[in-house]
Amino acid sequence: MERLRRRLAAEGRWRKATLEELEKDRCASAADEAMAKIACLRRLTWRSTQMQSCN
């Protein structure tokens, strides 16, 4: 019975650590996506200002 408790506790810790890592990866992916969108918007804004200065 004690061995079962230890095993379940270890699995719980493993599951918690795994979920934390998945959350970190998800946050990192969301941050990467946001930075890519910001870079795209900056390029579009820069192009727009360049075109206006030519007129």
UniProtKB/TrEMBL annotation:
One Pfam family cited in the UniProt record for this chain: Zein-binding
InterPro entries: GTD-bd (IPR007656)
Cellular compartment(s): Membrane
GO cellular component, one term: membrane
Limits of the GTD-binding domain: 3-43
Annotated protein name in UniProt: GTD-binding domain-containing protein
Chief location category: membrane
Transmembrane helix as UniProt keyword: yes
Molecular-function annotations in GO: myosin XI tail binding
Keywords: Membrane, Transmembrane, Transmembrane helix
